[in-house]
Amino acid sequence: MSYDIFKIFAALDQLDSKDKEFFKAHSVIRHLDKGQLMVGDYKRCSGIPFVLSGSIRLFRTSETGKDLTLYKIRAGEICVLAAVCAYANLEYDFTAEALEESELCVLSTEAFNHLAQSSPVFREFVFSNLADKLIMALNTIEFLQFPSIEDKIKNYLERSAGQDLVIRTTHETIAKDIGSSREVVSRKLKELESQGHLIIKRGKIKLIKKN
User: What's the rounded Cα separation, in Å, for the pair 69 and 76?
Assistant: First the structure.
């Protein structure tokens, strides 16, 4: 499938024609199957992913083997951690997982640094994305301070619910996002359901709003 990155990333459409051509000349399209990983493994970042379709989960695995999701990247967003590491020439030690079939436009680190230094439009776009993800990361840090797994699950569900109070996810996904195990999450969800806080259905959870 052909993608017009300047339609998906509307802010980049403000780049001048020369910068647009430079961007396209120094980027490649990469396809990821659902579940496919992009591993940092303490190596220098080789490119900055711009998500064209699908979604990506950025996470880290603890010494105990549990995953903790830092943030998720959806169509129209970039991996700001990769961007920061590329700009500062730092090691990239997080792992990204495709949550669904995804298409990425990967811009080389050299081209990214050139545009960040020479184009105010591109620089503003990067800092805007960075601010959004920084807030998410701070929320994650705050979330980790919850003392019990029950409080973590409640907070996670409240943050993830739509206006209809429904969270479309699986127990396994919740466990990965909060750094727990599927068995523990399933048991706690059942307890919360028995207490009347929520209703568990296949592939989704509905919160019960109490007056």
Answer: 19
Q: Average pLDDT in the 54-73 region?
A: 81
Which pLDDT does position 189 carry in this prediction?
94
Q: In Å, what is the CA distance from 172 to each residue of 68, 125, 207?
A: 12, 34, 18
Q: At what angle do helices 80-88 and 109-118 cross, to 10 degrees?
A: 80
Q: What is the pTM of this model?
A: 0.66
- Identify whether the C-beta of residue 80 lies closer than 8 Å to the C-beta of residue 133: yes
Q: Where are the beta strands (DSSP E) in 21-129?
A: 27-32, 37-39, 43-44, 47-53, 55-61, 67-74, 91-92, 95-98, 102-108
Cα–Cα distance between 49 and 104 in angstroms, integer?
A: 6
Q: What pLDDT is recorded for position 139?
A: 65
